[in-house]
Amino acid sequence: MYYVYMLRCMDNSIYTGITTDIERRMNEHFSHDKTYAKYTGTHHAKKLECVWQTENRALASKLEYHIKTLKKQQKEKLIKDHKLNEVLSEKIETDKYCVKEV
């Protein structure tokens, strides 16, 4: 399984990433382990906002890319509603992803 996640940072920016182990990756982001993302190293991750699960890396990478191209307002809507189909239905097959409760 692969996970696509969105983190809220201390400056209210939003970081999007992918992983195969959500717990390990969050520990890296929040503890500033040497494997944290460069972005969260300077913007300091504050909160895991949402996570989607999918079966393979190709699907996860596609979702990550499309989320990263969204405007901040659209990202905030995803965080609030967790509904990919309302924001990304014209770009990806949203039924290939399921929300994972955080």
In short:
This protein is 42% helix and 26% strand. The protein contains five helices and four strands.
Task: Characterize the structure shown.
This protein is α+β, with helices and mostly antiparallel strands and 102 residues long. It has a single domain (2-100), classed as GIY-YIG endonuclease. 42% of the residues lie in helices and 26% in strands. The chain contains five helices and four strands; from the N terminus they run ββααβαααβ. It has helices spanning 22-31, 38-43, 57-68, 72-81, 84-88; strands at residues 2-9, 14-19, 45-54, 98-100. A four-stranded antiparallel β-sheet has the order 2-1-3-4, with helices on both faces. The mean pLDDT is 92.
CATH architecture: 3-Layer(aba) Sandwich
Largest sheet: 4 strands, antiparallel
Arrangement of strands in the largest sheet: 2-1-3-4
Q: What class, by secondary structure content?
A: alpha+beta
In N-to-C order, the SSE pattern is: EEHHEHHHE
Number of helical elements = 5
